Amino acid sequence: MDRPDAGMGENEEGKAGSGMEREKTGLRLRPWKWEELGLLLRWLPGEREMTLWCARKFVYPLTEAQLRAYYEAMEENRRGFIFAALDEHGRTVGHIMMQDADYEENSIYFGLIVVDPETRGKGYGKEMVALALQYASRILGMKRVTLRVFDNNPRAKHCYETAGFREEKREEAAVDFHGEPWTLVHMAAEL
User: Does 61 sit behind a cis peptide bond, omega within 30 degrees of 0 on the bond before it?
Assistant: First the structure.
């Protein structure tokens, strides 16, 4: 039986995704809305922030047109799920995407994870990832979730480790950011 205080960290078997209980922040997930694309532009104003968020998936400066084209293609191909995290007052404070679901291997990839910079430090990132893990496990039947994070983003990496992700491999110099090589850390959580 899972510990009642486990939230979405590890359960007694050392796996992520214990129960549906919420952390103290009262965060909840709902499908992302088109009219919220502008939030991402505000949350990711600089090239460094954008690159930490998406590697080279988009071209700087990030535009609503780029986001719309990417999300429309994802929707059309039924490749993923995009969620907004809402705080206890119903304000959108985060964004997380699930994609590349493999229903034979019961695995899915999490990406494009970001929390409103004005609300960081309140546990929203940890809880958003925890709720997404619950969704992946309970609704989609996934047993494994993967993600990637740059090693020069220690707060995000710590957030994922707290949620139950473990490092699997490192991809040295995966991105060259203006002459600065960034290492990409591949992580996974077993549900």
Answer: yes
pLDDT in tens, the chain (191 residues): 222 233 344 444 557 754 444 456 899 999 999 999 999 999 999 999 999 999 999 999 999 999 999 999 998 988 899 999 999 999 999 999 999 999 999 999 999 999 999 999 999 999 999 999 999 999 999 999 999 999 999 999 999 999 999 999 999 999 999 999 999 999 999 99
Q: Is residue 122 part of a domain?
A: yes
Q: How far apart are CA 65 and CA 40, in angstroms?
A: 12
- Cα dist from 92 to 63, 134, 169, whole Å: 19, 19, 33
| Type of residue numbered 112 | L
Q: Which residue segment(s) compose the domain that 58 sits in?
A: 28-142
